[in-house]
Amino acid sequence: MKKSVLLGLAGLMFVSASASAVSFSGQAGKDYTNLGFGLGTETSGLALTGNWTHSDDDGDVAGLGLGLNIPLGPFMATVGGKGVYTDPNDSDSGYAAAVGGGLQWKIGDSLRLFGEYYYSPDSLSSGIDSYTEANAGARYTIMRPISIEAGYRYLNLAGKDGHRDNTVADGPYVGVSAAF
């Protein structure tokens, strides 16, 4: 039973992925960088995402997410979750299972506004007290497949057992992405 459910979910992912675009992105803020990829993030149905965020002062975070995109008129809402590996500079490495989602607003053919938020409490994480990630910005397609973006990213690993918080990202960024 369990095996057939897993095979069914994997099959749905591949069906959804076959008609979806693949994207790669990179962003740089004052004290952090972020690299990401996405599969199916601009169409309805299942979407797969991944990213790696690095801060010299506060550590690294790598995540893999699965979401469901739901069209709502000019908006695309996403609900889902992320499995996150955390490696803060001032605490133990660990993991977090974060839940959240996002909203995209497509304005014309070239401009998108977006925002997302994910959270993991202490009960769904190890090595940290909680995981919080928020991102908001605008993406402008110069010519398909190249887009530029600007926004604000916040990613915090709350300290546990007397360790300080590690704010991996907290500030504006600029970036570029390619979608195929």
Note the topology.
Blueprint: H1 2-18, E1 22-29, E2 33-39, E3 45-55, E4 59-72, E5 75-88, E6 94-107, E7 111-120, E8 130-143, E9 146-158, E10 166-179
Antiparallel strand pairs: 1-2, 1-10, 2-3, 3-4, 4-5, 5-6, 6-7, 7-8, 8-9, 9-10
Description:
The protein is mainly β. 9% of the residues lie in helices and 66% in strands. It has one helix at residues 2-18; strands spanning 22-29, 33-39, 45-55, 59-72, 75-88, 94-107, 111-120, 130-143, 146-158, 166-179. It has a ten-stranded antiparallel β-barrel. The longest helix has 17 residues, at 2-18. It is globular and about 50 Å long. The chain starts with a helix and ends with a strand.
Query: What's the count of strands?
Result: 10
Strand order of the largest sheet: 1-2-3-4-5-6-7-8-9-10
Biggest sheet record: 10 strands, antiparallel, barrel
Helix tally equals: 1
Strand content: over 45%
Low-confidence parts lasting 5 or more residues at pLDDT below 50? 5-10, 12-18
Distance from first to last alpha carbon: 36 Å
- What does the radius of gyration come to? 17 Å
The secondary-structure class comes to mainly beta
Envelope shape: globular
Provide the residue-averaged pLDDT. 90
Percentage of residues in helical conformation = under 10%
Run of helices and strands: HEEEEEEEEEE
